């Protein structure tokens, strides 16, 4: 276990870790800024921006995806640190962006699994961050369905990890369902409904 971390940090030292880290965080901050969330605009403003600039979130999101896969063995240096930012990006309600970037999660799991035989650091981090993101208003039914289908499909090509991924996806799906229910009933006047969702979430 100690040799794994020694090798991990040795690999991190032979390339500019801080530079890559800054790139990913800056790119995610750019595409998640309020001024680019087109779904919040009027139909006319949405069309005007799309016609003139396109959806810049997709452009940068695809670049983040491509750069991630260029990291090679250095990916491990960004787990679990980049789990939260990548999650925030995948929660943007744009279907093509989600389809392009959710597979990064599987690559993170596979990377950690190949080093340690499990992906507990990734799992713990995504559960922690998912709670925070959904509470902040992000996430929806479509995301939950894409998350499940994409990760299951990715894992189907790796029999050795498939059962672990399937259990993880089931766990996250169940948590997301309860978080979304809880967020919905927070505005419900029924105390019984709020209490029931709170108990389920706990």
Automatic annotation (TrEMBL):
Alphabetized Pfam families for the sequence: TPR_DOCK
Residue ranges of every copy of the Dedicator of cytokinesis TPR repeats region domain listed in the record: 3-150
GO molecular function, one term: small GTPase binding
GO cellular component terms attached to this protein's record: cytoplasm; plasma membrane
InterPro entries assigned to the protein according to its UniProt record, in alphabetical order: DOCK, TPR_DOCK
Superkingdom to which the source organism belongs: Eukaryota
GO-annotated biological processes: cell migration; myoblast fusion; small GTPase-mediated signal transduction
Name recorded for this polypeptide: DOCK2 protein
Species of the source: Brachypteracias leptosomus (short-legged ground-roller)
């Amino acid at each position: 276990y100690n040799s794994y971390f020694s090798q991990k940090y040795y690999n991190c030292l032979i390339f500019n870790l801080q530079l890559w880290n800054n790139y990913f965080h800056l790119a995610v901050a750019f595409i998640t800024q309020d001024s680019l969330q087109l779904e919040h605009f009027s139909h006319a403003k949405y069309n005007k921006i799309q016609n003139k600039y396109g959806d810049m979130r997709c452009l940068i999101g695809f670049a983040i995806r491509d750069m991630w896969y260029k990291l090679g063995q250095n990916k491990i240096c960004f787990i679990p640190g980049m789990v939260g930012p990548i999650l925030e990006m995948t929660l943007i309600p744009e279907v093509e962006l989600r389809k392009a970037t959710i597979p990064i999660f599987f690559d993170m799991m596979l990377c950690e699994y190949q080093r340690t035989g499990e992906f507990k650091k990734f799992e713990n981090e995504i559960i922690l961050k998912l709670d925070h993101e959904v509470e902040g208003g992000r996430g929806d039914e479509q995301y939950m369905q894409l998350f499940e289908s994409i990760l299951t499909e990715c894992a189907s090509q790796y029999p050795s990890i498939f059962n672990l991924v399937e259990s993880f996806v089931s766990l996250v799906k169940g948590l997301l369902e309860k978080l979304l229910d809880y967020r919905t009933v927070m505005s419900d006047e029924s105390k019984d409904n709020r209490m029931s969702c709170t108990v389920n979430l706990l």
